[in-house]
Amino acid sequence: MAHDKAGKTMEGDNMRAELASPIFRLNTLARHLGVSCSLSPPSPMESQFPNQAIYPSPTAGFSGGSVFANVVQAPEDPILGVTVAYNKDPSRMKVNLGVGAYRTEEGKPLVLNVVRRAEQMLVNNPSRVKEYLPITGLADFNKLSAKLIFGADSPAIQENRVVTVQCLSGTGSLRVGGEFLAKHYHERTIYIPQPTWGNHTKVFMLAGLSVKTYRYYDPTTRGLNFKGLLEDLSMAPSGAIVLLHACAHNPTGVDPTVGQWEQMRLLIRSKGLLPFFDSAYQGFASGSLDADAQSVRMFAADGGECLTAQSYAKNMGLYGERVGALSIVCKYADVAVRVESQLKLVIRPMYSNPPIHGASIVATILKDKEMYYEWTVELKAMANRIINMRQQLFDALRARGTPGDWTHIIKQIGMFTFTGLNKEQVAFMTQEYHVYLTSDGRISMAGLNSKTVPHLADAIHAAVTRIK
Amino acid sequence: MSSAMASVALLTPSATSLSLRENSKRIGFGKKHGHLLFKGKASGRVSMTVAVNTSRFEGVTMAPPDPILGVSEAFRSDTNELKLNLGVGAYRTEELQPYVLNVVKKAEKLMLERGENKEYLPIEGLAAFNKVTAELLLGADNPAIQQGRVSTVQGLSGTGSLRLAAAFIQRYFPDSKVLISSPTWGNHKNIFNDARVPWSEYRYFDPRTVGLDFEGMIADIKAAPDGSFVLLHGCAHNPTGIDPTPEQWEKIADVIQEKNHIPFFDVAYQGFASGSLDEDASSVRLFVKRGLELLVAQSYSKNLGLYAERIGAINVVCSSSDTAARVKSQLKRLARPMYSNPPVHGARVVANVVGDPNLFDEWKQEMELMAGRIKNVRQRLYENLSQKDKSGKDWSFVLKQIGMFSYTGLNKAQSDNMTDKWHIYMTKDGRISLAGLSLSKCEYLADAIIDSFHNVN
Asked: Boundaries of each Aminotransferase class I/classII large domain copy (chain B) (predicted)?
């Protein structure tokens, strides 16, 4: 069979090849049968519904075709895609409130001073090597991370019941935890709050779990639907996994009170549900590392088991370094040992062992009293700036007489505000005011500064008054 | 499994959680034994509320240590002075010290001076890195690159890039399998298993000749269903060190084209095999020249010594730029739920080294030195073996094999002897990493190999 080796053929050859090709023949047949189906390799514009289209087998091997003919263009990630769109916009008044990356008052990304110092130390250390880390990651980093989230005096840690493995930031920790549970846990359903971070569902599904939701956000109060939450968790099958945002719920910024956390804990323990904490904002929500870990510590302290995914992307500004940790609090120390051995089997075929750079920075800072203190100061400054932005935005909307109750802006916690704006209003704001945010109405307060608050307030005002 | 344990608690109320655990240790808890203990069909729901004192992970069994990475762990625990670590393929100097390349140190200092930020990379990774890595692999003037037909996504070194590709295969080619060489790197099977991609083996190593079973390889590739993925080591085959000749590569390409198979290269040693970056990429470039669509996983762990930074890439060479764009978008869709976006540090180092003509030249020189040291070690080992072994056994395979490793032909018992008696750590398939060997230790190693080979069965 003459194979088109270089993709270059005479025009005649091309046409002959096309006529003989399965695509053409099937298309012809379809037309005769009056069946509507698309058989050409899909263009990016085409509908991405493979169950309606028939594609020739990738192994058909027709000349000039591609084995990847049935690979359709995936849409941009809804969150990260906002930045992509923002970058393309030539307007000078554009504002990026999409992804949760901290910006200074000058609108610039920030690398913490203490991080720079730590990095200097590492890079200038002549005895530093780049040998593979163990599969579970940098040992110091793991110990220090566990202490950070569970508290240095945590009985669970002291009893060696906590296994901690370094992972690729929050996402990686959730994925490794999810895959571990899918392999070793008898209940393969995870309950996630409604709404939650856009990537949660995909992470857990690809890990092999099935995903259900529990009520969380109440749009009428713009607060917590606590009754709905308790009802839904009560109905979950015993042993089901429950995803909990440790603090600064993403995207709503709505957190349970301490009293509500306690009620949740009692319910979760009585039903034998397995809590899986996502802790991406420790220190960022209130400015206090301990206060922001309270929910996790309540569960870790009651003798029960839980999983925790930690991220240093935001609180140490190490976004691109991908630093995080997965901790599993087990009932017994010998269980923890076995669990660790099985976590390695999940990690090894995924990426073998984790990246060293970010973890070494974290370990350097956490183990040095003075650097740790410096970190807490810088962290508090970031958290305070965000709280300040909340107040400014609230004041600006009030000053404009923007219709609606905007107190949720100052009540919500953390990097994000769930504005309550709908899709159309969001699209309007992007189109007319070049304000970029996710279509669920979530804005990243970290992307605001005193100069851009008025522009955002204008945009919201216009959206609310002109689009319903 | 833990529900079975919990059911025991239900049936035997006197059993405390402590004795349950003791039982599990004695019996060796696993599915089989869980079945023995499990008397009734107690529903999971009921048993979970009773077994408040049992861990949900009680039934989790102890996993064995990783056959490759676990070797280093064992080595570290050994206190004997004569110990030698020939397990993992990590380059060591003649003083048996880890080596950070000078160009890497320079690049890191430059990066520090520039004070770059640590923002998230795009899902597909650092653009500058993706550009130079494809060019390094295929040649900057390769028509495939110039026509925009190569989609490159930064991955977590070789493993991560292979895993992304495997996930892509699982999603878009659910009926296809991957053919892997027998033997191959131990982690390949794990990657495809976890990605739920079926695999089968093609003959590769011929123990009789200690060379390539070329006919077996061709026959097995031919016998596989059309449109299979064929995993090929671009150079310096791991673990055997046996590479096809250029003529053999042509024939492999012939049969792959004939069967409409999709070549899937694992390139972890570009530059390390021969010392030349271009020469080591010639197998991949041969296939690309033929107009084939193919996948290539790259790693910078060894050739830039960036092991722990986890830097690599998955490249998919497609028949059109439109296809390449679509493929890239789907690879991103698989990376996002795995780790969102890749780590920036290693990518910047590579981009700086490969993208700067001076650093790139300097790198080539360091590369030649590293590869050269290994060739010297091979030579010395061969000489020692030939001189000391009076049996007349042909040890020339040590010289013929390429890259970091030597496949000694020692079996598991013999490999154990190497460790137990001689404190030489290696993988149980008989593979030794010459990168971990110094000239001064060649004699000791030769003695150990000769002893294990002749005196152990």
From this structure: 83-449
